[in-house]
Amino acid sequence: MPHYLVTGYLPDDFDPSTVDEAMAEEIHAINREMIAADVRRFAGGLGAPHTLRTDADGKVLVTDGPYLEAKEHIGGLWILECANQEEAIAWAGKGMKACRMPIEVREIFFAPAPAES
Fold first, then answer.
1. Contacts by 31-36 with C-beta closer than 8 Å and gap 24+?
2. How far apart, in whole angstroms, are the C-alpha atoms of residue 25 and residue 100?
3. Distance between CA atoms of 95 and 101, rounded to whole angstroms?
4. pLDDT tens digits for 62-75?
5. Residue ranges of the alpha helices (H) in the chain?
6. Angle formed by the axes of helices 85-99 and 21-36, to 10°?
7. pLDDT tens, 3-16?
8. What are the C-alpha distances in Å from 14 to residues 28, 93, 113?
9. Whose CA is closest to 75, among 2, 4, 16, 3?
10. Which segments of 9-116 does DSSP mark as H helices, in order?
11. How far apart are CA 115 and CA 52, in angstroms?
12. Maximum distance among all Cα pairs of the chain, rounded to whole angstroms
């Protein structure tokens, strides 16, 4: 079955202290529901973004913030194994309601490594 990356987006000025106990329980409840339905393969929230780039001399630079200039960043993700995109979108909709953030759904493409000759 296909896998889907479900990501939630937070504004750059998101304050984690605004997540109250009721919201946290809604998020835990959707995770329990996903586990019971055997669709959740991984889930997690993400910390502040940092970006690695190279300068003109090829040295690695670490900067705060996402690679692209944006007003939002990925705040968390699920990897779901669903029968089809419609099922993944249905789960993402439940996640969006619980997390109260915009959600994006993308299929994860997998191509096995070529056999060694």
1. 33/94, 34/78, 34/80, 34/91
2. 13
3. 9
4. 776 555 566 788 89
5. 21-36, 85-99
6. 160
7. 999 999 988 888 88
8. 20, 21, 40
9. 16
10. 21-36, 85-99
11. 32
12. 56
Which three-class secondary structure state does DSSP give residue 27?
helix
Query: In whole angstroms, what is the distance from residue 104 CA to residue 46 CA?
Result: 15
Residues 6+ away with beta carbon under 8 Å from 40 = 31, 34, 78, 79, 80
Nearest to 27 by CA among 86, 101, 89: 101
Closest CA to 40 of 28, 52, 26: 28
- Residue 37 CA to residue 50 CA, distance in Å, equals 34
In whole numbers, what is the pLDDT of the chain averaged over residues? 88
Q: Are 9 and 73 in contact (CB under 8 A)?
A: yes
Pairing of strands 50-54, 60-64: antiparallel
How many other CB atoms are there within 10 angstroms of residue 27's CB atom? 18
